[in-house]
Amino acid sequence: MGSICGFTVVTGGAARLVFGYDSYGNTCGRRNQQIEGVWLSGLDHTDRKFVFFLDPCNIDIVQRRIRSMALCVSLCPTEELKTYQDLKRFAMLNGSELCSYELAGHKYPSLPDRFSKCPKLPVPPSKPLPVFNRCTPLDVSCYSKFAEAMVTFVSDDNSLHRLISSVAASKELIIGLCFLALVLSMILMMIIRYISAVLIWILTSLVVLGSLAGTSVLWWLYIDHRLSGNDTLTKTRKDPREEADWFLFPNQILWFQVILLLLMLFMRKRVALTIALFHVAGKVFIHLPLLTLQPFVTFLALLLFWIYWILVLLFLGTTGNPVQNEETGLTEFRLTGHLRYLTWYHAVGLVWITEFILACQQMTVAGAVVTYYFTRDKNRLPVTPILSSVLRLVRYHLGTVAKGSFIITLVKIPRLILMYIHNQLKGKENAFARCLLKTCICCLWCLEKCLNYLNQNAYAATAINSTSFCTSARDAFVILVENALRVATINAVGDFVLFLGKILIVTSTAFAGVMLLNYQRDYAEWLLPLAIVCLFSFLVAHCFLSIFEIVVDVLFLCFAIDTKYNDGTPGKEFFMDKALMVNRSGLLLLATPTCFHL
Question: Which residues form a coiled coil (predicted)?
Fold first, then answer.
């Protein structure tokens, strides 16, 4: 992507975007070279630094551009010009000619070409944009015909008008509640180790009691049906298939209940392991408080990259060879030949680099957690484990995260393409094609999720052994397969607990919002402000608790490796926390050797 940016800068696309260019291919504010076959090209526009459109309101929404001749001028008109005499006077006083270059300013009122090569009257007052040097009309009513439908809809719909007014009136409160959600998310990451056990056992109790209650009700209905059937047996003849169904259904539920209880009894120690992992994860955040800043750092990196990506995309829009528009006769710059594929390459880069930044976050967190876990004396931890993890990432493991993120990109892009095709063909394809597309999209989504989980564990394995991506992925896969039941338990129970944590943050923020909005009687509508607050609080909670989830997964991988190669005897002491040591006896580990070494 850096090469694309360099290409746009070298070929002048960046300069044309920033400084602007006229309809003859000349860049404003610069001395230009003659373009073969283009009249009025190669002019010296050193003193003409602003782009002026003859009809700035003629906007083509489909093509996303202004359908008007553009000229380079030395000054934007600051007052309305109603006649051609005003155009002449403006040109004479300011030296800024607003008509085409071949027309003399003192002859504007008498020239026959003034209707096609001079600005549309009246010329609205305008001022240049701070960076991009385009003369922009001060009166936004210039664009009223494009906003007329929306304005009419808003003004006619009283409910929508009240909603928008409520958001505008409560913007300070919305910002405050969003900040509250941010604080609650950070606090929850610290205290979740104390409430995870309560949440998990409440969930377990509800599942057991709910299944028992459901089974009891079904058997009660079956017995009641049999008793009522005996009373009417002499009057009507019962269908034997109906009798079999009444008996079969509660009987199947009973067997399901027995299997569920046995499964929960068998998995109780693995549930206890999940609680212990949550407890240790809370300790990790106490010893490494800078982990709570990872969502901010990642968001900032993503934001900067997305801004850069959009900027380069705009550069590409003004890069290429000069081409004359057959409809308007004006000169435009377009990518031709193989250069047309640069836009697609740029789009792939968006997905890949985004995944790369997220992978860097996972590797950074994994490196810090591995350092914490395999340091026996927690008081002798490095001063900045997270900074050390970042330095190791930059020095040794950039190729690992690049390869892992590229694999995700190879799966994500086909899924996005299929989703685009599905949306384009909505209502046109037959049932079979629709089902096939949805099946492919679903399969690719599942594959992407599995690869994401494997990549995350591969990064943790890399942080432990400093091996390559493929080797780390293989070793992590072996460990996960050996501990499949525990992995399933931790993911199922842990994800549910984290989901409850997200719901807790959303409901707490929403409750605070209801109380504050109820106190502020000026707000006529609460729906939209509360919806915005709830959405933002859920996104914030998801970002922060995703870091907690990564910490739990890395701790589990470290725990599995620790118990595999250490048994607590002299020379093979465990690295694990005491909370995990209590649960190690209930965890069966296979003795298949791998290349992990401690």
Answer: none
